[in-house]
Amino acid sequence: MHDLKRIRESPEAFDAMLRSRGREPASARVLELDRLRRAAQTAFQELQARRNTLSRRIGAARAAGEDIAELMAESAELASAIAREEAEEKRLADELQALLATLPNWFDEPVPPGASAEDNVVRRAWGEPRRFGWTPLQHFELGERLGLMDFEAAAKLSGARFVVLRGALARLERAIAQFMIDLQTDGHGYTEVSPPLLVREEALFGTGQLPKFREEQFVTTDGRWLIPTAEVPLTNLVRERILAESDLPIRFAALTPCFRAEAGSAGRDVRGMLRQHQFLKVELVSVTTPEQSEAEHERMTRCAETVLQQLGLAYRVVELCSSDLGFSAARTFDLEVWLPGQGAWREISSCSNCRDFQARRMDARYRPTDGKGTRYVHTLNGSGLAVGRTLIAVMETYQRADGGIDIPEALRPYMGGLSAIIPV
Prior knowledge:
By secondary structure, the chain is an alpha+beta fold.
């Protein structure tokens, strides 16, 4: 949610930000609703003051034995006027909040301007894409030839954008997930959390998935929502709380299934596991003071990079331009892994600093050590990593000429010492 004071002070900058994100200017409507709301609030307060004065006059007249019929009639008229102004103030406040809820976060000054993903900027790279003496296969070709990846069976069970993994590939997926969560908790100090996979609508509002991305979510018949990412329950753990500054930063990690409707993605990544309705992901969430959040953003990104480095997967760090940023993000670094079968870089993690945008929606604050009032926390989130896409990268990078897959050294302890998946 937005700080109205900042919009009042810099309406032109607010509109410029929205334009750079590909949105229409909104400051005029925001400020008009704000003006009308405050006017209704002032009128309501003035009417209340008049009623209080009139109540004292009525009390004095009654004590003196005077006729109070005219005063009582005036009091009734004031009560009706107060009710009207109170209702109008609430209507305008609700309309203003509904508008603000649809407007994306301000982005940080270092974010590169841009009209599309083509304007994203590569900040650094690690590793060299593997060269092959043959044409490398894509992951679904490898998996189907091994008889361990079955999209047809999944379609019979659930429809498109699902997969059934069997045998060594199912174990490899589990090994990757276990390796990741162990690294982020034991190696990087995140506290592991096992959160609910179903959340209330308020939780999705708090992190910014609602109301804008309603069509991309799955909702149950009783009004609970399947999480699109563990960012939602992890970040909402500090919802409506006042933390002590000494408790910050807080770092959470969770390995969970995630569920996305993938609305609007028809025709994209139809083959394989790149775009699924259900997938595993290790999510990282940090809650910090404003002064800590920039350094925490870099730290979180490095924690995600470490996974790729230990798996020996070539990747690059890309900063998203203004129009490619997520709704709640003030700044985002994507990790893109090289997929030899596709011959392309594909996103495998997205690490974002949301500043106080989500905290305002959740009313999450902290009390500074000097004890003077409260401030909104800053929240950050990132994938550490998407398990399915990491499986794809491992399969395509470590494929063998015979159609088998070598197991990276870091994963072998989780595979019972298995060094390769061999075609039968």
